[in-house]
Amino acid sequence: MAEKAAKLASFTWEGVDRQGRKVKGDSQAENPSRLRLTLRQQGIAAQKIRRKSSLSQLLEGKRSKKITPGDIAVFTRQLSTMLNSGVPLVQAFDIIGRGHENPSMRKLVMAIKDDVESGTALSEALGKHPLYFDELVCNLVNAGEQAGVLDTLLDKIATYKEKTESIKKKIRKALFYPTAVLVVAFAVTAILLIFVVPQFESLFRGFGADLPAFTRMVLNLSDFFRAWWWAIFGGLIGGVVLFLEAKKRSRRFAHFLDRVALRIPVVGSILRKAAIARFARTLSTMFAAGVPLVEALGSVAGATGNAVYGEAVRGMQDEVATGQQLQWSVEQTKLFPHMVVQMIAIGEEAGSLDAMLAKVADFYEEEVDNAIDSLSSLLEPLIMAVLGVLVGGLVIAMYLPIFKLGSVV
Length: 409
Prior knowledge:
Layout: H1 2-6, E1 9-16, E2 22-29, H2 32-41, E3 45-51, H3 54-63, H4 69-84, H5 89-99, H6 103-117, H7 122-127, H8 135-147, H9 150-204, H10 213-249, H11 251-261, H12 267-288, H13 293-301, H14 307-321, H15 326-333, H16 338-350, H17 353-408
Antiparallel strand pairs: 1-2, 1-3
Pfam families: T2SSF
Organism: Sediminicurvatus halobius
Transmembrane segments: 175-197, 227-244, 382-402
């Protein structure tokens, strides 16, 4: 067996499937003829087959990148579409896995395919990879398998993943832009203080007159930077690393940060709306799949993206488990607007809780979009003003003595 495996070679291929669509992928086989036969058994007519060189395999291994939540969302959508079109589950995994550009994702899909092919339930196969498929996804897939509506549930999971990832990307984009600009501003200021200002200092020594207070302050700041630049940069880098590690390892610190973040003007409002949108979208998806409310709330707690809301949802789970209505439990947290409470109340009374929560999610996702657009418009002139004050202040400080000298002459 090992001798046979040693003779396998890697190939890239292109062909046409039964529906006439062009497909391509990478496969291992003993020779091109055997690969052509294997593809024909899968309903693919191979048109081009090329053997991979050792160099290309090495480069592919170096290009291997990590699997992102976006990759998982696309995979779920592809799997849902194929199952809905009548493609058998194992064949769907084979087509998706072999056609994926990311080798890491291809390896993951083929590992799940092997488990399913050996008789393991899809929910269990996904549960073996908790980094990419959380408890919520596994519960939904399990519900779909039990009810015989796996394609429908995968479609709901794909929609859920796409919506939540869209919100996360927009929030990251809104926060990344000002952070990046401020980092660049600090770097430019440090370069000016360390390399440019000292050139002016040697020029000012020959003036034989007192320098303006603002210029002296900048020169002293330049001396401090040149003497302690290693401590300043080391402290900043160490502080960032320490902050990230503390957030990752200390639950109490992460909870404190999430609580503080909710109180930041403008940004706190966006984070609050995003948490409500994720809460409503996740609970709607799980409830529509037939997952009991108490069990659904357990999965929702970890999906809100904020420790404060997660803790509140866990409290709601305990109250609902004792027989309390969801509406009353949501109202008691004091974290959800009155409109959300009323929509949940109407949903409970009408027996359409999943539909009402979906409407709440749609509303708050749109609110997050609008708030982020407004924040971006507000930050652009503010950031330009900060840059102008930093760089312009340094320039003015350096030219003040020259202006003063000109007025004396």
